[in-house]
Amino acid sequence: IQVTQSPSSLSASVGDTVTITCRASRGISPYLNWYQHKPGKAPTVLISGASNLQSGVPSRFSGTGSGPDFTLTITDLQPEDYATYYCQQSYSAPITFGQGTRVDIK
Amino acid sequence: DVHLEESGGGLVQPGGSLRLSCVGTGFNFNNHAMTWVRQAPGKGLEWVSGFSSGGFTPLYADAVRGRFTISRDEAKSTLFLQMDNLREDDTAVYHCVKDAWGWLFDSWGQGILVTVSS
Question: How many C-beta atoms surround the C-beta of residue A27 within 10 A?
């Protein structure tokens, strides 16, 4: 299963709303997870099962999607949110990640 | 707290071998599938190999099948990745990852660098 993530990078200001999309090569709902990765740190899971916010993750992160199409939304972007975000399909092995979206300061 | 500590990385020549280890603490290692994910320089995350939840069947990405072998020692709470016939495109930081269930990766190690170069 191929997973296509877009955009590959974006610039946004503190307080903005950011949207990242992933499209799988077939329907996989709800087996889509989102991760945040900061340089020099281990990735952390934000959302599982397309829309389930993980414990301790701020509510400004949300996920939606069905079939092959999924979206990660960050509202009221904060300085600590500048990072690279990855989607990952957990429908079947071999497991695949999206190409990543780097969120930079505008 | 869950902690995953990788070791065994380093510089190796093409065609050589390395064995990565990962000790897991702070959780019941025997109850969880485990996975290896790598990140090549300037690239994204790539799933390498892992045990499936429920049956602990070992599975591999096409890029490493036949060259890498995943194993685990539950008495020592340790995950291994035997890497043979290494190629330059295997150069990456390798992360040990705990699987919450069904390929949901809820805890990651900091990663260990493997460099394949002559």
Answer: 12
